[in-house]
Design a protein that fits this description.
Layout: H1 14-30, E1 40-43, E2 48-51, H2 57-68, E3 70-74, E4 85-88, H3 90-97, E5 101-108, E6 111-119, H4 137-140
Parallel strand pairs: 3-6
Antiparallel strand pairs: 1-2, 2-4, 5-6
Length: about 140
């Protein structure tokens, strides 16, 4: 059974219709468009191939989420773009993708979680010294 769709275009009437037609024509004729991220992920966790259009790092990590049940969290903005192609195990690809960042990869019941802690060579969290104790050492053990 074949379904045919027919779209009927009516001629716009009045000022609003002419304005809408003019704006639609201008936008179709050459207004700048924003390209959507185009990340292709193929393979398995052991052997993956990723091709991108030098997309943003979060876009590539999101594509891993769809393909391999990967979730990611980050403390810092992931600025920068991915290279055009990666291949290897998923951990190797993530390592090359997140080069320059400190991160942890955790595996839990079929889910892979990536936590980005910060950029390398920058303190990821301020180090706090413990507060000095006002009690003696013997009082701390009670």
């Amino acid at each position: 059974m074949e379904i045919n769709r027919l779209t009927i275009l009516r001629r716009p009437r009045g000022y609003v219709g002419i304005l809408a037609t003019l704006l639609l024509s201008i936008s179709a004729a050459g207004a700048p468009t924003i390209a959507a991220a185009e990340v292709h992920v193929e393979g398995t966790v052991a052997a993956v191939r990723v091709t991108t259009n030098k997309d943003a790092i979060p876009d590539v990590l999101s594509a891993f989420g769809a393909a391999f049940n990967v979730r990611y969290r980050t403390v810092v903005p992931l600025d920068g773009n991915a290279s055009s192609a990666y291949s290897g195990s998923l951990v190797q690809v993530i390592s090359r993708l997140l080069d320059g960042y400190n991160y942890v990869i955790a595996h839990d019941q079929g889910t892979i979680e990536i936590v980005v802690l910060g950029k390398r060579r920058e303190p990821s969290m301020p180090i706090q010294k413990p507060a000095p104790s006002t009690q003696g050492i013997a009082a701390q053990w009670r």
